[in-house]
Amino acid sequence: MHEWALAEAVIVAAHQEAEKQNIKQITKVLVKIGELQQIDLDIFKFALENIKNIYDDLSFDADVIDLEVEPSLLKCKVCGIEWELRDLTRLKEDESEAIHFIPETAHVFMRCPGCGTPDFEIVKGRGVWIQSIEGVL
Ligand SMILES: [Zn+2]
What we know:
Layout (H helix, E strand, L loop, with lengths): L1 H19 L4 E10 L6 H14 L10 E6 L2 E4 L5 E2 L9 H9 L4 H4 L10 E5 L3 E9 L1
Helix pairs in contact: 1-2
Bound molecules: zinc ion (ZN).
The site of zinc ion (ZN) has 8 residues, from loops.
């Protein structure tokens, strides 16, 4: 259900943004998804297509929506260094998978690569947002 709510928010926001910019026909919507956001991309795409059909006054097709994953950025609260999830090669593959599905488990598996503390914050890597909209005026 979470994917459906996000998809609807994206569709509505894209529509409002297009109106604000006087765009008649949207040709591209770039949607960014944080690497640590709990979201199933297949369900999200499916939801976008279906919700698009409910709003039949919209000036775009669901296939103009591009999804891009934004890399995470993590910062140690103790020594202050920053790193990305993908930098942590010492994470085993199955642990890395678990983090993608449940960001809260990041603290269970991850340690600061500098000082080894599990006390770090997630600076980037959460949320879903519209990065840009292109269209015909
Ligand atoms: Zn540290």
